[in-house]
Amino acid sequence: MGEQPDIQAAYLTATTAAHTDPALLDWFLAHGLCRVAVEGDATGAIIEVIAPPVLLLGRGAADVRACPHPDRLGYPAKPLAAMTLDDYHIFLLRYLTRAVAAGACSCFVCRQPIHADQPAAPWDGIFIDKELVCWLIIHFDCKRGLAREFKGYHPFELAALPPEPYDVSHD
Ligand SMILES: [Zn+2]
Question: Does the pLDDT at position 53 exceed 50?
Answer without folding.
Answer: yes
